[in-house]
């Protein structure tokens, strides 16, 4: 996907803000995948996609009418289907009905269907209901009620702009804050949890507190980064000895050494992939040149402009080149360029 993005934008892409609606371990795995792809993952945004829900719905509908394409990655991943659903979602924001039209979705079969506001809401009922609890909690924490909410800001694009380092005046007046929805602390005497980070503080956040053990005083610090990943450190006051842990929920996730190894493997595979691509490009250019030259010489419009001897010489050269190409399909890039 990184290569596709760079090809589309025409420039190198290093920073990415990734939409994600995952568990903690999946959250971490998503960041690891970004690192392996040479992205600097700015932040993970928690959300599930209405468009993907609609794509799944129409894949099921296609199965009922025609064939099961859920396991056919080429069909499922076709951008045209996702784009059609995305456009339909936008249309439904101002209309009661939207059409889905995807030509040649699978084995020459077209997908022509529609969706209404009512069916869209039914399809996403759990997602809509799932938004109410955090909204109500947010209102309660802010000591507001529905009547006091007069505007909604679509913040993701602004958030990406801010995180990418944009200092323009257009974004400086838009503070975008995330929170951690949990009480965080440590177990102290009597198996009691002592809270350091209270519910819903904006992140990143940091809190330090000193605890007394039977032997010494220990300064404990909770530091939560912008992606909600906690870092916990403890320092012995009398000894100065320090321990630190980053809570990444390693079970089922990748170690740092594994990520570094995968990055190297990805680079190696990329180099291997690029070699046949370069070879194929050189071969195709040479083949196109030979056939185009042959077609030009044989064109009736060229009659009288070159004599028969020159014409035959060019045709013989083109035919020799075409024969060479047919017999040297796996030649190196340099050989094609030499020809």
UniProtKB/TrEMBL annotation:
InterPro entries: ATPase_NBD, HSP70_C_sf, HSP70_peptide-bd_sf, Hsp_70_fam. Pfam families: HSP70 (PF00012). GO terms for molecular function: ATP binding; ATP-dependent protein folding chaperone. The keyword ATP-binding applies. The keyword ATP-binding applies. Keywords: ATP-binding, Nucleotide-binding, Stress response. Gene3D superfamilies: 1.20.1270.10, 3.30.420.40, Actin, Chain A, domain 4, Substrate Binding Domain Of DNAk, Chain A, domain 1. Belongs to the heat shock protein 70 family. This is Heat shock cognate 71 kDa protein. It comes from Pteropus alecto (Black flying fox). The lineage of its organism: Eukaryota, Metazoa, Chordata, Craniata, Vertebrata.
């Amino acid at each position: 996907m990184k290569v596709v993005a760079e090809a589309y934008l025409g420039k190198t892409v290093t920073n990415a803000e990734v939409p994600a609606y995952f568990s903690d371990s999946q959250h971490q795995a998503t960041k690891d995948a970004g690192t392996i792809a040479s992205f600097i993952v700015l932040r993970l945004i928690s959300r599930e996609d209405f468009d993907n829900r609609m794509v799944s719905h129409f894949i099921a509908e296609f199965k009922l009418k025609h064939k099961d394409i859920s396991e056919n990655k080429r069909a499922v991943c076709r951008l045209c289907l996702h784009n059609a659903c995305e456009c339909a979602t936008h249309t439904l924001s101002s209309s009661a009905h939207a059409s889905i039209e995807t030509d040649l979705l699978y084995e020459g079969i077209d997908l022509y269907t529609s969706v209404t506001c009512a069916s869209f809401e039914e399809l996403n009922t759990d997602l809509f209901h799932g938004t109410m609890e955090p909204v109500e909690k947010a209102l309660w924490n802010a000591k507001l009620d529905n009547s006091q909410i007069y505007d909604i800001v679509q913040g993701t694009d602004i958030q990406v702009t801010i995180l990418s380092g944009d200092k323009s005046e257009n974004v400086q007046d838009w503070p975008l804050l995330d929170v951690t929805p949990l009480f965080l602390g440590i177990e102290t005497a009597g198996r009691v949890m002592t809270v350091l980070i209270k519910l819903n503080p904006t992140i990143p956040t940091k809190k330090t507190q000193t605890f007394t053990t039977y032997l010494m005083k220990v300064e404990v610090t909770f530091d939560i980064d912008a992606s909600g990943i906690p870092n916990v450190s403890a320092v012995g006051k009398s000894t100065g000895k320090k321990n630190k842990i980053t809570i990444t929920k390693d079970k089922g996730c990748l170690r740092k050494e594994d990520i570094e190894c995968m990055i190297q493997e990805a680079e190696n595979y990329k180099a291997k992939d690029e070699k046949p691509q370069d070879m194929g490009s050189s071969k195709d250019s040479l083949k196109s040149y030979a056939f185009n030259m042959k077609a030009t010489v044989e064109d009736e419009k060229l009659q009288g402009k070159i004599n028969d001897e020159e014409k035959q010489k060019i045709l013989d050269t083109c035919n020799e080149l075409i024969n060479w190409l047919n017999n040297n399909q796996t030649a190196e890039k340099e050989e094609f360029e030499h020809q």
